[in-house]
Amino acid sequence: MDCEGVIRRVSRYIDGDLEATVVEEIELHLKTCRDCTILVQQTRITVNLYYDSDLVDFPVEVQARLHETIRRKICKDQK
Amino acid sequence: MYCATLAMPSIQPGLLANLVKAPSLSSSNPHRLPSTVAREDEHLLVAAAKAGDASAFEELVNRYERKIFRLTMNITRNREDAEDAMQDAFMKAYSHLDRFQEDSRFYTWLVRIAANEALMRLRKRRPNQVSLDEPIESEDDFIPQQIEDWGPSPEQRFAQTEMRDILRGVIEELPPDFRIVFLLRDVEGLSTEETAETVGISEAAVKSRLLRARLKLRQKLDTRFRQNGKHGL
Predict the structure, then answer these.
(1) Where residue B192 falls among pLDDT bands split at 50, 70, 90?
(2) What is the C-alpha separation between B95 and A74, in angstroms, rounded?
(3) Fewer CB under 10 Å: which end of chain B, C or N?
(4) Cβ(B222)–Cβ(B150) below 8 Å
(5) End-to-end distance of chain B based on CA atoms, in angstroms?
């Protein structure tokens, strides 16, 4: 497998979503290709950095309005 | 009593008293760190809420409101739409709780409802920017131009707030088609199948967009790490 082949499969490779024979081909390539080894490593780091990351502030007034809306809904349904 | 006191957040005795206080964390992806996205005691809260325990539903709201707002905000990029989508998602979840099949996770179900609410608003505002078709593949975008070692872990080199600003800035630069798939798969932790059903595209299209999103983000992070003058330290 060449570099482009690895790049096209890097996402499925780090997800464990490839057949064993394809994984073997990729890992054989990685043994001799520094760039692809770095690419795989950095793609994996990218995914891990974002997973469940705290990207957005949650304003207290937004939270208060949500709670009030739900409270009204629950109380209305319970009547 | 609940509607008389209107105390929120609150956890009442009874079913909730049996909750596991220190839940074990799990992750289906061996490459990922343990996450607090969905706790193991979630099904107890759902069962209590289904049985009419309002405080149990409150606890579910308290637990997931921040994550759901993160999702709706990241999809819509509009605070008003994000808030509306979040409120409607929780209201629908409450109204249709009896339809929730407990063989899946409540959090996943909620994420799908919220994503649909957010996508509906995004498509209304930007009808031409969110496509169900496969994006046209550009080899220039696809193949990295330059690959250099990042050196020590980025998490070690950047302060938490600085890293957060970098991650936030970079993901905002992704085209909506790629951003939404990445958010659902890699931020919220949905499966490929769940992401495909939520967005209304094939699983193959999810994998294709995810590959491009991850490669674009890696490239943009690489650039940002250099710009911040700490690359290779």
Answers:
(1) very high
(2) 9
(3) N
(4) yes
(5) 60
Alpha carbons A49 and A53: distance in angstroms, whole number: 7
Question: DSSP of B61-93, one letter per residue?
Answer: HHHHHHHHHHHHHHHH--HHHHHHHHHHHHHHH
CB-based contact (8 Å) between B5 and chain A? no
Which residues on chain B are in Cβ contact (under 8 Å) with A2? none
Per-residue pLDDT reduced to its tens digit, B68-77:
999 999 999 8
Residues 24-63 of B with CB under 8 A from A: 29-33, 35-37, 54, 57-58, 61
- Residues in chain A with CB shorter than 8 Å from the CB of B95 are 73
d(CA B84, CA B114): 10
Q: Six-digit token pair at B101?
A: 């099949």
Using DSSP, state whether B43 is helix, strand or coil: helix
Q: pLDDT tens digits for B165-188?
A: 889 999 988 988 899 999 999 998
Q: Which residues of B touch A17 (CB under 8 A)?
A: 192, 207
Helix, strand, or coil (residue B26): strand
ipTM of the shown complex: 0.90
Residue in B70, B94, B164 closest to A73 by CB: B94
**Which of A6-10, B130-134, B150-154, B194-198 is least confident?**
B130-134
Q: B224, B170 in Cβ contact below 8 A?
A: yes
pLDDT tens digits for range B107-124? 989 999 999 999 999 988
What DSSP letter does each residue of A15-60 carry, written as one string? TT-S-HHHHHHHHHHHTT-HHHHHHHHHHHHHHHHHTT---S---H
CA distance A13 to A15: 5
The dihedrals phi and psi of B153, each to the nearest 5 degrees, come to -55, 135
- Is the Cβ pair A49, B154 closer than 8 Å? yes
- Cα–Cα distance measured from residue B189 to residue A52, given in angstroms and rounded to the nearest whole number: 8
- Could you tell me how many CB contacts below 8 A there are between chain A and chain B? 143
